[in-house]
């Protein structure tokens, strides 16, 4: 009898394994104390949907009812999710590598500081997420936009590695809604002139999803449609292209006729805000405002094709009995502004509209219809997908997995962070008919810190012009009042308090934290306070405000720039090292 019982157990376990393999996962069979076999899927499937330039702050996701029905209401919304560079190519490279832009040194959309050629030059074609997932046993697929300057001339020099199947949008036609060019696997590019790129995209995306389902292997599929990015018909591309309102599919062109950009206090304000070039913007006239409302409606209309795609993807997964074993992620590569702070349509700034982006996730053990307040960034997404695939985390990750994996067994309790490192180099490009290329803004280089705690909500930045910004978003959610101004103009900072402390004391802490983060690597990017306080006595801004640290923080090197550059050039970026607190007795530079 013991032999027969053992044989039955082995046969049953084999059946479980075979069944699980048929739905594209790698199971682990576990015999519980009561003798009941259960199967825990270890390598879950991942569908990653990344729109282009989709905002959160302007409420565009409220006009995506299918995404809300199938992902948001069935999963979790990360309220405080940020990108670290508000520009597509640097943001995407950081996402796929799990590294800050100052560690990838891909900081622009075009060479010499960015784009696909820079990605290749930096050696990432063999060191990024799809390659790592294939090494872990995944089939990997991708459709749509990957990187800027990935074009009809260089797509094979070399081919992007790491994909079982791919169909990339190629420049200079990436943003041409009615004249797109796609390049499948290692085939030659194909033009789809006269066909709407969103419909072409959907057919390709669902085709690869079918391939992934049929394979029976765990799979990752990245879907990156171009909507709601501005339309570009110019063959020149890059900074010289004229970006106009998105072109929706004809079936959506009549929607939202009365919708306008939210009229928040910082929309085209009567008084200027910000610093540097932003503070010198003129208030928009009525024609400009009307055009920007049209631009906003065009974005919402263009989004409807993505909304339809979400429904199709979920239905395909459900039909294949894979929905419960698949994580579906919906996000954007960066945010977007239209009219806030008198800005023309665009991104590239450190304001909330540009850096705070949608992130919705549904999947195994993810709470339904829940809002998560934890501070998270795109740097955390590669580590998170590693967790979804039960892959050991890499030491060179600058992020940490999202708080998704706190199930009944509390398997993973990763360290959380309260901060976001925000960084940008180069130009700002106003989009739309009122933002011609002659208005390209130079000296848009800055380092910034976004920090959110139980009782604080701050943004601090240092520009390459050495102008500073400090916003208390609990009291000024629209970032209209730079409270650093009194401090910088020589007024008594003690008259302005934050968290009950003199402003100067808080700025000393913020500056020291930014000093660590602006050049951090690996764990230092997740636990920067541990760099400043190796004795593990400080874990938050609140902890750092203890009076015994006042002298230490006041004597720190200060974040500054030697001059403005359009790329990451160390010599231009001022001091790089922060001092380390050693029981208050000695000073050491952090190297």
From TrEMBL:
Pfam families hit by this protein: Sulfatase
PTM comment: The conversion to 3-oxoalanine (also known as C-formylglycine, FGly), of a serine or cysteine residue in prokaryotes and of a cysteine residue in eukaryotes, is critical for catalytic activity.
CDD domains: G6S
EC category name: hydrolase
Enzyme Commission number(s) of this protein: 3.1.6.1
GO molecular function: arylsulfatase activity; glycosaminoglycan binding; N-acetylglucosamine-6-sulfatase activity
Domain Sulfatase N-terminal: 45-388
Domain of life: Eukaryota
PTM-bearing positions, type 3-oxoalanine (Cys): 88
Signal peptide coordinates: 1-20
Reaction(s) the record says it catalyses: an aryl sulfate + H2O = a phenol + sulfate + H(+)
Family of the protein in this entry: Belongs to the sulfatase family.
Protein name per Swiss-Prot or TrEMBL: Arylsulfatase
UniProt KW Signal keyword: yes
InterPro entries named among the record's database cross-references: Alkaline_phosphatase_core_sf, Arylsulfatase, Sulfatase_CS, Sulfatase_N
Single GO BP term: phenol-containing compound metabolic process
Statement: the UniProt record of this protein carries the keyword Hydrolase: yes
Keywords assigned: Glycoprotein, Hydrolase, Signal
């Amino acid at each position: 009898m013991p032999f027969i019982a053992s044989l039955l157990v082995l046969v049953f376990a084999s059946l479980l394994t075979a069944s699980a393999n048929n739905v594209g996962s790698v199971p682990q069979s576990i015999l519980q104390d009561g003798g009941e076999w259960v199967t825990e899927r270890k390598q879950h499937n991942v569908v990653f949907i990344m729109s282009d330039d989709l905002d959160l702050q302007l409420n565009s996701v409220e006009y995506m009812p299918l995404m809300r029905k199938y992902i948001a209401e069935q999963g979790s919304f990360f309220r405080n999710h940020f990108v670290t560079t508000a520009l597509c190519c640097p943001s995407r490279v950081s996402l796929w590598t799990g590294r800050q832009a100052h560690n990838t040194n891909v900081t622009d959309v075009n060479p010499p500081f960015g784009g696909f050629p820079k990605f290749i030059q930096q050696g990432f074609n063999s060191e990024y997420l799809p390659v790592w997932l294939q090494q872990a046993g995944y089939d990997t697929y991708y459709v749509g936009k990957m990187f800027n300057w990935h074009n009809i001339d260089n797509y094979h020099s070399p081919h992007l590695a790491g994909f079982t199947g791919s169909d990339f949008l190629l420049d200079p036609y990436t943003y041409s809604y009615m004249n797109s060019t796609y390049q499948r696997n290692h085939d030659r590019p194909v033009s789809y002139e006269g066909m709407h790129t969103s419909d072409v995209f959907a057919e390709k995306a669902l085709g690869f999803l079918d391939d992934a389902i049929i394979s029976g292997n765990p799979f990752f599929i990245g879907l990156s449609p171009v909507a709601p990015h501005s339309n570009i018909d110019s063959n020149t591309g890059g900074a010289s292209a004229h970006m106009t309102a998105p072109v929706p599919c004809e079936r959506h062109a009549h929607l939202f006729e009365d919708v306008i950009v939210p009229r928040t206090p910082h929309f085209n304000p009567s008084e200027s805000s910000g610093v540097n070039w932003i503070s010198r913007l003129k208030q928009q006239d009525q024609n400009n405002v009307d055009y920007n409302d049209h631009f906003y409606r065009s974005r919402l209309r263009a989004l409807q094709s993505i909304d339809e795609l979400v429904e199709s993807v979920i239905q395909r997964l459900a039909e294949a009995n894979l929905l419960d074993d698949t994580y579906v992620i919906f996000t954007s590569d960066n945010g977007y502004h239209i009219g806030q702070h008198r800005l023309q349509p665009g991104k590239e700034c450190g304001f909330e509209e540009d850096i705070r982006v949608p992130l919705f996730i549904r999947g195994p053990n993810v709470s339904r219809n829940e809002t998560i307040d934890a501070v998270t960034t795109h740097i955390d997404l590669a580590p998170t997908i590693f967790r979804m695939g039960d892959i050991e985390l890499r030491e060179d990750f600058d992020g940490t997995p999202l708080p998704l994996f706190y199930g009944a067994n509390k398997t993973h309790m990763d360290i959380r962070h309260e901060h976001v490192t925000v960084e940008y180099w180069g130009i700002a490009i106003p989009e739309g008919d009122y933002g011609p290329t002659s208005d390209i803004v130079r000296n848009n280089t800055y380092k910034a810190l976004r920090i959110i705690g139980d009782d604080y909500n701050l943004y601090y930045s240092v520009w390459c012009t050495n102008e500073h910004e400090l916003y208390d978003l609990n009291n000024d959610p629209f970032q209209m009042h730079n409270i650093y101004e009194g401090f910088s103009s020589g007024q008594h900072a003690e008259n302005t308090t934050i968290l009950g402390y003199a402003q100067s004391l808080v700025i000393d802490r913020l500056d020291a934290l930014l000093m660590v983060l602006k050049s951090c690597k690996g764990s230092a990017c997740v636990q920067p306070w541990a760099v400043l306080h190796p004795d593990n006595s400080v874990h938050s801004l609140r902890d750092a405000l203890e009076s015994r640290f006042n002298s230490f923080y006041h004597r720190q090197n200060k974040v500054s720039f030697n001059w403005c550059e359009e790329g990451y050039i160390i010599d231009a970026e001022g001091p790089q090292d922060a001092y380390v607190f050693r029981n208050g007795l000695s000073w050491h530079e952090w190297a």
